[in-house]
Amino acid sequence: MDKALYLAMSGGVQTMNAQTIHANNLANVSTTGFRSDFEQARAMPVYGNYHPSRVYAMTENPATRYTQGDMIQTGRDLDVAVAGDGFIAVFDENGQEAYTRAGDFQINAAGQLVTGRGLPVVGMSGPIFLPPSDSITIMSDGSISIVPQGGAGNEVAVLDQIKLVNPDQQNLRKEEDGLIHSRDGQIFQPDLNVTLATGFIESSNVNAVEEMTHIMNLARRFEMNVKMMDSIRNNADSSARILQRTS
């Protein structure tokens, strides 16, 4: 009985973990540049001081979907979207270089170019700071040019260039902060072939219908595990009553 109960219990726990992954995907269906996560279950032996005779299901997040989301036209000068493969380099909350597809830029009170989450955008030599200007233009290669405040329309100055990278996806991992990091901890070099589309942002690549279907299937699976535990409990009670009558 205990073996069957352990299997049913562990199956229910792992089903809840799988629901967490899909619920997180669904919650970010409107998050700019969000990359959805996969989930899968595999058999895992229970190791201990004895022979691993028991096996339970383990849910894991093996990979992230890097397919491009829909391009949404905004017409805003500071909105950019990566056209095709590649990422925008930013500094995470710990000051380490990370990568994102979210190009909903803005300028903070210090004149620094940041993402919609407030993360500093990486330039060719560090964070990007912009002086007061009448207009800002971000080119397809990430170059940032401005017309200085009070300057003539032909007084264009190129100040910096956004760092764009296109690393091997096998060397990428998405962490809990939602940003993409390198698996080996190395900083990726700029890739001149990555291009930006100005006036656009990229939506999440989450398929809401697909995620809802997964969540519904997992809910039925969890219910099945609960019913199995009830059946095991009823069988144990019946066995106990039989033993009481025969003793």
Task: Write a structural description.
The chain has two helices and 18 strands. Strands 6-5-14 form a three-stranded antiparallel β-sheet, with no helix packed on it. It has a three-stranded antiparallel β-sheet with strand order 11-12-13, with no helix packed on it. Strands 1-2 form a two-stranded antiparallel sheet. α1 (about 1-25) runs antiparallel to α2. It folds into two domains: about 1-65 and about 205-245; about 70-200, no CATH class. The mean pLDDT is about 90. The protein has about 250 residues and is of the alpha+beta class. A hairpin with a 5-residue loop joins β5 and β6. It has helices at about 1-25, 210-245, and strands spanning about 40-45, 55-60, 70-75, 80-85, 85-90, 95-100, 105, 115, 120-125, 125, 135-140, 145-150, 155-160, 165, 170-175, 180, 195-200, 200. It starts with a helix and ends with a helix.
